[in-house]
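Following up on my earlier thread - several people asked me to post the actual chain instead of describing it. Fair enough. Here it is, all 81 residues.
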Amino acid sequence: MTELRLYVEGMGCRRCVREVTARLRDAPGVETVAADHRRSVVVLVGSMTPGGVLTALEATRFRISWIGADSNETAGGQRPS
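Reply from S.P.:
Thanks for posting it. Predicted structure:
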């Protein structure tokens, strides 16, 4: 099992949490999604890949960055506003 933690900029309300979690639940390999709108953090567990996670949020307005990743992964994981 892999655990990925994301900071999701712009996920500040329950509607945003519903949108983000619905998209991430559909990403290949995602088994569980836990989101905290107060901290704008999402925790994913499963066999998903970072690329699959990015693809799931590609058409949204949310900008994400990886929590606990090295600087190269973080820079590559950010989404434009």
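Residues 69-81 have pLDDT under 50 and may be disordered. That should answer part of your original question.
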